[in-house]
Amino acid sequence: MTQDRLTTLSNIKDLGAAVRSARKAMHLRQAEAAALCAVGVRFLSDLENGKDTVRLGTALKVLNGLGLVLSVGARPPSWKANG
Using only C-alpha atoms, what is the Rg of the chain? Predict the structure, then answer.
């Protein structure tokens, strides 16, 4: 039985690190993971390296393919209403 772990992501580099960690835990090379997720190796590399311009839809394909889930929750905003 596996235990679900929740990781809070603050930026694209955090997402890339989570993807890389999951891929390596499955003992997959980038080319193998890219093929399984139906994306290019270049895209997977860009995602793992935290490139700002990766497409969200394609990133979600990778997350799904690697058995990861992206969730959104509320927290206080980083800005203030009066200042």
Answer: 14
pLDDT in tens, 1-47: 345 678 888 899 999 999 999 999 999 999 999 999 999 999 999 99
Place of tokens 């999951």: 22
Report yes or no on 19 lying in a domain. Answer: yes
Percent composition of the chain: helix, strand, coil (DSSP 3-state, to 5): 50, 0, 50
Total domain count, the chain:
1
Whether residue 58 contacts residue 39, with contact meaning beta carbons closer than 8 Å, is answered with yes
pTM (two decimals): 0.85
Give me the domain span that covers residue 58: 12-65
| Four-CA torsion 21, 5, 2, 48, nearest 10 degrees | -20
**Residue 59 within any structural domain of the chain:** yes
